[in-house]
Write a structure and sequence with these properties.
mainly alpha, 2 domains, 0% strand, flat
């Protein structure tokens, strides 16, 4: 709490400017999406998917389908974890691939939980723990990228430099923790 307060005070002006830019960007995005007719496009896609499902002649029982999807997502995640764990110099991109594959598996397991075996519940918990660190890492990398990209507009070069340094240190910390979790054999799938 004390560290957060100190960091917030140190970067207060910079944070306020970033918040203003984020708010403006959100408003612009909402207007753009509304004007693009995305809702109509999604409804059309849903109708097409429903037609395709109804046209199938052989229906797979839901529990079999769910287990097959969970197994596919699990294999994809384990492959990416092996790649990261075997590489001493695993970079952010490799960890990001693990994060995306982990999200696919976790969301599949959560969605199909009512028809899957209970042993999947432990996998969901472990995935959540690893994803927490990988999510923080992703937030930090994205924040640094955006700060660098909009540095001129944000001003505050001294505070910006300190903020980028702080984000870099936090990236290293969260990356190491996530890698250690993966290397020590944290189960990331059923």
């Amino acid at each position: 709490m004390f560290i957060s307060l100190t960091i917030n005070e140190k970067f207060k002006t910079l944070i306020e400017r970033v918040d203003r830019y984020r708010s403006d960007a959100l408003s612009f995005s909402n207007r753009t999406i509304a004007n693009a007719g995305v809702e109509r496009i999604v409804q059309h896609a849903m109708a097409a998917a429903e037609n395709q499902i109804c046209a199938q002649t052989v229906l797979t029982p839901l529990d079999e389908f769910a287990a097959r999807r969970a197994e596919q997502a699990s294999r994809m995640l384990k492959k990416r974890v092996r790649r990261v764990v075997s590489n001493r110099d695993a970079d952010y991109a490799a960890l990001h691939d693990v994060r995306i594959a982990g999200k696919r598996l976790r969301y599949s397991l959560e969605f199909f939980a009512p028809v899957l075996d209970d042993h999947y519940l432990a996998a969901i918990e472990q995935l959540a723990q690893v994803q927490e660190h990988l999510g923080h890492l992703n937030d930090l990398v994205t924040s640094e990228t955006l700060l660098r990209e909009y540095a001129f507009q944000l001003g505050e070069p001294h505070a910006l430099k300190k903020a980028v340094k702080y984000l870099g240190e936090q990236q290293q910390l969260h990356g190491r923790v996530a890698l250690e979790m993966l290397r020590t054999g944290c189960q990331v799938g059923p």
